[in-house]
Amino acid sequence: MKQYEAIGVIETKYFAVAMEMLDQVSKTAGVEFLSSHNQLGGKLVSLVIGGSISDVSLAVDTAKQVNQTKQDQPLKNAVVITNPHPEILKYAIPSKPTKQKRSVAKNQTTRNTNTTKKQTGKTLEEEENHE
Questions:
Q1: C-alpha 51: how far from chain center
Q2: Domain membership flag for residue 30
Q3: Residue 77: Cβ within 10 Å count
Q4: pLDDT class of 112 with cuts at 50, 70, 90
Q5: Which residues form the BMC domain (predicted)?
Q6: Which residue range is the domain that position 21 belongs to?
Q7: Does pTM surpass 0.70?
Q8: Is 30 helix (H, G, I), strand (E, B) or coil?
């Protein structure tokens, strides 16, 4: 997993506002979008970004400036975490399945399908011929 000097967490109301903030943050600072977490059907959205300490600080300040342009002040919280521990990154960044994990999952699915077809009394070839 990639290590970042800092990560930023921006929590705001409304999905559309989160996307606007992410757009502005990405344009102003050299940060990488790491993940988002939606709660309450998109009425509460957390954005996680990573990069250098100065870039993440600039990004969080940009999110706060975007918030100032909104009438209902949707920004709930925005923090910079410097030198984040790897355990925090495991929580903040969803892990992507590797090729090997996907291959194992695909093989397991194929095995389950074959077992189901055998239980019906038909061979795999008979089943394929009827499809």
A1: 16
A2: yes
A3: 9
A4: low
A5: 6-93
A6: 6-92
A7: no
A8: coil
